[in-house]
Design goal:
Elements (H helix, E strand, L loop, with lengths): L1 H23 L26 E13 L5 E5 L2 E9 L8 H14 L7 E7 L2 H16 L5 E5 L19
Length: 167
């Protein structure tokens, strides 16, 4: 019992002296949250061996929320399009939809269009997507689907993210 009491007294004495030592030292700095360093995003430049050139079939679609006119292009075959080797996904897809947007804004004076492209390496799959898109928009009341004539607009191949003229 005595031994236990001595241990308790020593612990209390140590705590008391620790508190006094802390009181006599400089005031402690308030703890602040560590700020995480923001990592700058790395720009991935594709290596030439990660891409292959393939023939791609594609068509474009455009709509605007406030407009009842929707535009669709015909299916186009493009040779030598950059595709990623691993995923077989088309590189620079945004440049192709940008070509359609530039055509609609410049020639047809349609502003704020949302454009998209649909593509595949097989014509049969693209034709299926095309038919589905047409049937989906023909059955909506008040929406008119306009097919863009291939003589007026065709997609052109894009290299290294550069957009060439759309017509």
């Amino acid at each position: 019992m005595m031994r236990h009491l001595a241990t308790v007294i020593l612990c209390l004495f140590a705590l008391a002296s620790y508190g006094q030592a802390a009181d006599t030292s400089a005031p402690a700095k308030p703890k602040t949250e560590k700020t995480k360093k923001k990592k700058t995003p790395k720009v991935r430049v594709p290596k030439p061996d990660q891409h292959v050139k393939e023939t791609v079939y594609l068509f474009g679609f455009s709509s605007q929320l406030g407009d009842s006119l929707h535009y669709i292009t015909s299916i186009v075959r493009l040779d030598s399009v950059d595709m990623t080797k691993k995923t077989r996904f088309m590189s620079y897809r945004d440049s192709y939809s940008y070509q359609l947007r530039v055509y609609l804004e410049g020639t047809l004076h349609k502003k704020n269009q949302t454009t998209a492209i649909f593509f595949d390496t097989k014509l049969k799959r693209v034709q299926k997507m095309y038919d589905k898109m047409i049937s989906r928009h023909l059955n909506v009341d008040g929406v008119k689907l306009v097919t863009i004539n291939p003589d007026d607009f065709t997609f052109t191949s894009v290299e290294h993210g550069l957009t060439y003229g759309g017509s």
